[in-house]
Specification:
By secondary structure, this protein is an alpha/beta fold. The chain has helices at about 35-40, 40-55, 95-110, 130-140, 160-170, 190, 215-220, 255-265, 300-305, 310-320, and strands at about 10, 20, 30, 60-65, 110-120, 145-150, 180, 200-205, 230, 270-275, 330, 345-350, 355-360, 365-370, 375-380, 390, 400, 415-420. It has a 6-stranded parallel β-sheet with strand order 7-6-5-4-3-10. A 6-stranded antiparallel β-sheet has the order 11-12-13-18-15-16, covered by helices on one side. Helix 7 runs parallel beside helix 8.
Length: about 425
């Protein structure tokens, strides 16, 4: 179990990563749980958070005063509303004691809560700056809070409003990280990159189509000055209808894995996973969706879907990344002779003593071995679908070399090639996630 003094987070000296306060490695592996504070009772909260902690997740993204599919001041599982008379200046302590329980339970499990105090559409209207100050003051001593400004709202002419909100979090809680959850296609770096309150950028690649290249936004953010960590805080959700339409199919585990590996290997400080029936905590027997919400499979229950294939694939991603050191890890397309294009584009990342290459459809990476800063190599194929590593027995010492993945081509034939500096004696990639 993590010790409380290690829960605090900071930005690495190079501005590229998030790390623990003691400098040790940490990776943002988020789960989208927007409706957590209003949908679950305490027994259910325990069940959900314990499962995500066991799967290796590190961040839970949730909204204190939920919106989108729920009205302002919607009650929690115990019938308690956040505010008396819908007035954010009159908090209802019964609601906030349950919120305290959720945050503290997450902290006990070593989970950070990326907390949106209100859904984006409420800011500047029902949710005021005084409310931002009140909630920041309430949770200033919780070490497992990350403040998440915004909330799927287009910035447009509201940059000044969100800057004021961000400054409230930054000034009231200087030990906490603060970020911004943007509307799809409108990354935080476009509006707030130079702001002192924004410690890390996020984008939302969203749910519009297969093969969205979220790593392109990571590339763009890496080119900015000063450097700041960046990640995708809302990619395609598992089981979400593609482009929100009932006749286009659903995003499957392959889509979830593909985007996550592309993004992290492009240099992201992490990624957020989501499941369409978990963020709203669907209960097929007792919960009726708002009429306008057409992206849910109403027969699915959240307590089954937290054990979905896509969620468990995120465990293998965490195992892989935590099996190698994070310091100085960077994108490394220069080691590839054949980057390929579109849905088959290969992504490479290079760290201290190792290189990873992700092939999303079983295409063979051709690696320029002479670009790697070590001569003796140990090579592996890592299966992102089951977390198994297989040693590659024979590899040339130099030149350009094709690595042929096991199996066939196409979706669900994705692999990670790991090339280690043999002198580091890392052991197989994955399976070494610290507790």
């Amino acid at each position: 179990m993590p010790h409380p003094h290690k829960w605090g987070l900071g930005v690495s000296p190079d501005g590229r990563r998030i790390q623990k306060a003691d400098g040790s490695d940490w990776l943002w592996l988020g789960d989208t749980a927007w409706a957590l504070f209003i949908r679950l009772d305490r027994e259910q909260v325990d069940r959900y958070l314990e499962k995500r902690a066991d799967q290796g997740f590190t961040v839970i993204q949730a909204v204190a005063v939920m919106g989108y599919s729920f009205p302002w001041n919607a009650p929690n599982a115990y019938g308690n509303r956040p505010f008396h008379d819908d007035d954010c200046a009159r908090p209802n302590e019964s609601f906030w004691e349950h919120a305290d329980y959720i945050i503290d339970k997450a902290g006990h499990l070593g989970l950070h809560v990326a907390l949106l105090p209100a859904w984006g559409s409420f800011w500047g209207k029902e949710a005021t700056l005084d409310y931002a100050l009140w909630i920041a003051d309430r949770y200033r001593s919780r070490k497992n809070i990350i403040w998440m400004n915004g909330g799927d709202r287009a910035v447009r002419d509201d940059a000044a409003l969100f800057n004021r909100i961000g400054n409230v979090f930054h000034e009231t809680c200087p030990q906490h990280l603060t970020t911004f959850h943007p509307r799809g296609g409108d990354p935080s770096s476009r509006h707030f990159h130079s702001e002192e309150w924004l410690h890390l950028n996020t984008n939302q690649s969203s749910h519009g189509s297969h093969d969205i290249r979220s790593d392109d936004q990571v590339d763009a953010d890496w080119a900015l000055d000063p450097p700041k960590p960046t990640l995708d805080s809302e990619p395609c959700y598992e089981r979400h209808p593609i482009n929100w339409k009932s006749d286009t199919g659903q995003f499957l585990p392959h889509d979830v894995r593909q985007l996550a590996y592309w993004t992290i290997f492009a240099g992201a400080a992490g990624v957020t996973y989501g499941h369409v029936c978990v963020w709203i905590f669907n209960d097929a027997e007792t919960f009726t969706y708002p009429e306008h919400h057409n992206s849910i499979s109403p027969s699915l229950n959240w307590w089954d879907e937290i054990d979905s294939d896509g969620a468990n694939d995120m465990t293998h991603l965490m195992d892989l990344m935590m099996s190698r050191p994070h310091a100085n890890r960077r994108p490394a397309q220069e080691i590839l002779e054949n980057e390929l294009e579109g849905s088959e584009r290969l992504r490479a990342t290079l760290g201290n003593g190792y290189a990873f290459v992700y092939t999303s459809s079983g295409a063979s990476p051709r690696v320029r071995l002479d670009t790697l800063p070590w001569e003796q190599r140990t090579c592996w194929w890592y299966n992102p679908r089951d977390g198994q590593a297989t040693r590659i027995e024979s590899t040339p010492d130099s030149g350009s070399h094709p690595f042929d993945p096991p199996g066939g081509r196409g979706r669900d034939h994705d692999w990670v090639l790991a090339i280690d500096d043999a002198s580091q004696d890392f052991g197989p990639p994955g399976k070494q996630r610290p507790v």
